[in-house]
Design a protein that fits this description.
This protein is α+β, with helices and mostly antiparallel strands. The protein has eight helices and 13 strands. Strand 8 and strand 9 form a beta hairpin. Helix 1 crosses helix 4, helix 2 crosses helix 4 and helix 6 packs across helix 8. The longest helix has 20 residues.
């Protein structure tokens, strides 16, 4: 299996992003449109310079969730204009207990760019990351065909998926102190950082996705284990939810995209000299990543 051959078999939907930015900004006042673009530019600069900005909630406590997604879309437009390419999307805040603790009602999502992808086996330098990075274990879904909401069911999502890959996400936040509101998370592209994908693609037709288990080792010692039921009950629900959510902005999930469906285990801080090994049940495979200075 070659991950690269799945990335955008079709032309990236750049115009969809641009149209979404224009449409969402048109709904705002001139002042609010200006601040949406300002926040997006600040976050893009933070990502490229690795210098975090202050939490935007302190400056804009009245920022709405709709505005937050407009900020994310505007930041995505900045990246596209700089030559970055969208290769997938991610869903975050998928653990129901975490949602209750933070007082939120739904997950959030972000865009995955080619700059986020780290080849399997390549060590990751901590110096190349934002402050206080953490690691998550996930299942990544590769799209067989386009999936456009609204009205996407779990059954429809199943038929649109090519298969699943073991995956790590290195969560990076462009705000410090760390953001606490869902609006800040959405503005910050759902804290999307580096993505490491396994090389084994497994079809999902005969799998009970919610019962897939995984254990995580750090430097050879077990530190966590869980099953995929922690991800919205089953990770395919993340795919369906995302397709329906994106429909609000005239965007979809597209053939060849990789969809990160949410953390299965807890998040764990990372440091130089650490090696992580995730092993999945159901013959899905395993994945390793190491961190250096």
């Amino acid at each position: 299996f070659s991950v690269k051959r799945y990335f955008h078999k079709k032309v990236p939907r750049i115009n969809n992003i641009r149209e979404s930015v224009i449409s969402m900004c048109e709904k705002q006042s001139t002042l609010r449109t200006a601040r949406i673009k300002d926040i997006a530019e600040r976050l893009f600069k933070a990502e490229t310079t690795k210098q975090p900005i202050a939490p935007i909630h302190d400056e804009f406590p009245d920022l709405t969730l709709e505005e937050a997604y407009a900020v994310q879309m505007a930041a995505a437009e900045n990246k596209l204009a700089s030559g970055w390419k969208i290769v997938g999307k991610k869903v975050g805040l998928t653990n129901k207990e975490v949602q209750k603790q933070r007082g939120i009602l739904e997950p959030d999502y972000g865009h995955i760019f080619d700059h986020n992808i780290i080849p399997e086996g390549d060590p990751i330098s901590i110096a190349s990351l934002m402050v206080h990075p953490v690691i998550e274990v996930e299942l990544a879904f590769v799209m067989r065909r386009d999936l456009i909401g609204p009205g996407v069911t779990v059954a429809k999502a199943y038929h649109a998926v090519e298969g699943i890959l073991p995956a790590f996400e290195i969560v990076e936040r462009r705000m410090y102190p760390l953001s606490k509101t869902i609006e800040e998370s959405v503005c910050d592209n759902a804290a999307c950082g580096k993505i490491v994908l396994g090389s084994k693609l497994t079809p999902i037709e005969n799998l009970n996705l919610k019962s897939i288990g995984v254990y995580l080792e750090k430097n050879g010692s077990l530190i966590d284990s869980a099953c995929c039921a922690t991800v919205l009950g089953t990770p395919i629900m993340s795919v369906a939810w995302l397709a329906n959510k994106l429909a609000q902005f005239g965007v979809g999930l597209y053939e060849g995209e990789v969809i990160m469906t949410g953390s299965i285990c807890l998040m764990h801080p990372i440091a130089p000299g650490e090696n992580y090994h995730a092993v999945f049940s159901d013959n899905i495979g395993d994945l390793m990543v190491s961190f250096v200075s």
